[in-house]
Amino acid sequence: MSIHLEAKKGEIAETVLLPGDPLRAKWIAETYLENSICYNDVRGMLGFTGTYHGEKVSVQGTGMGIPSAMIYCHELINEYGVKNLIRVGSAGAFQKDLKLMDIIIAISASTNSSLNKMTFNGADFAPTANFELLMKAVEYARKNEIDFKAGNVLSSDIFYDEDPDYYKKWADHGVLCAEMETAGIYTLAARFGVRALSILTVSDSLVNGEEISADMREQKLGEMVEIALNSF
Ligand SMILES: O=P(O)(O)O[C@H]1O[C@H](CO)[C@@H](O)[C@H]1O
Ligand SMILES: O=c1cc[nH]c(=O)[nH]1
Questions:
Q1: Strand, helix or coil at 110?
Q2: Rounded distance between C-alpha atoms, residue 22 and residue 89, angstroms
Q3: Could you tell me which residue ranges the Nucleoside phosphorylase domain spans (predicted)?
Q4: What was the pLDDT predicted at 220?
Q5: What pLDDT shows up at residue 218?
Q6: Element (H, E) at 59
Q7: Atom 6 (ligand 2) nearest CA
Q8: Please, are residues 45 and 4 in contact by the beta-carbon 8 Å criterion?
Q9: Which atom of ligand 1 has the smallest separation from the CA of 18?
């Protein structure tokens, strides 16, 4: 048991998929894992362990935002020995050529959070994906003809920005989309010497205002889950 997880030692696999939405975690466990058990419902932040093609895998909701995701990842790594953290999240597109349901693999994560500025005395740290997980995800997507874009994403502390055009300066620097956790997860993985990757699906566009429904965000983002389950 840790402060926010009630799993017993050994109940969580070395590889954990990390959706923000705990109900997406439940859907992933029910849809993709065999013999899954629910090991956590503290705060309703559901976590499950089962097998995928015979291999033990867990899926843990992280909540929204870097602070919440870092709490769960810290405990997964330090209390449960997790080695592979693979976020499966939704994201808002910054680029015109990204459509709803497109897949994005985050090579790196910019952020407007001060988390690393505090750690590095005002200097910038570049939160980066693990190369082996990244290559496996790319290889799986290519082999299965799943289109994706790979690049820099923004892990934002702000979902409802006052300025609807705030995304343009990021877009002009090639940033693909906004989400709210990857920079924190990549930073912790680097700190503790484990592997992390974020695979995202476009759920809305800041360019044209299109969006998918909350139900779809919970239960229809299967392509990225399939990539994640074949990336470690
Ligand atoms: O769909 P999830 O994985 O929660 O990811 C995105 O959705 C939430 C905002 O709606 C934030 O957590 C953001 O990162
Ligand atoms: O963080 C997020 C997630 C989805 N869409 C956004 O615009 N931001």
A1: strand
A2: 11
A3: 16-211
A4: 86
A5: 87
A6: strand 55-60
A7: 92
A8: yes
A9: 3
Identify the CA nearest to 200 among candidates 102, 113, 110, 132: 102
pLDDT averages per 10-residue partition of the chain, 232 residues: 96 98 98 98 98 98 98 98 98 98 98 94 97 98 97 98 97 98 98 98 97 91 96 96
User: From atom 9 of ligand 1, which residue's Cα is the shortest distance away?
Assistant: 64
Q: Atom 1 in ligand 2: which residue has the minimum CA distance?
A: 179
Length in residues, the chain:
232
102 is catalytic: no
For residues 111 and 134, what is the distance between their CA atoms, to the nearest angstrom? 20
Pairing of strands 148-155, 177-179: parallel
Domain residue extents for the chain: 15-230
Query: Who's near 80: CB < 8 A, 6+ residues apart?
Result: 2, 5, 7, 9, 11, 12
What is the chain's alpha carbon radius of gyration, rounded to the nearest angstrom?
Answer: 16
pLDDT of 133-152, one tens digit each? 999 999 999 999 999 999 99
Catalytic option among 21, 124, 204, 215: 204
Please name which of 172, 9, 34 lies closest in space to residue 94, comparing C-alpha atoms.
Answer: 172
| CB 25 within 8 Å of CB 46 | yes
Give the per-residue pLDDT at 22: 98
Residue whose token pair is 């299109």: 210
Look at the domain 15-230 and name its fold. Answer: Rossmann fold (3.40.50)
Q: Are 92 and 170 in contact (CB under 8 A)?
A: no
Please give the Cα distance from 215 to 45 (Å, whole number).
18
Is residue 177 lining ligand 2, measured as CB closer than 6 Å?
A: no
Compute the distance between CA of residue 198 and CA of residue 138 in angstroms, rounded to an integer.
12
The DSSP H or E segment spanning 167 is helix 167-172
| Ligand 1 atom at minimal distance to the Cα of residue 90 | 1
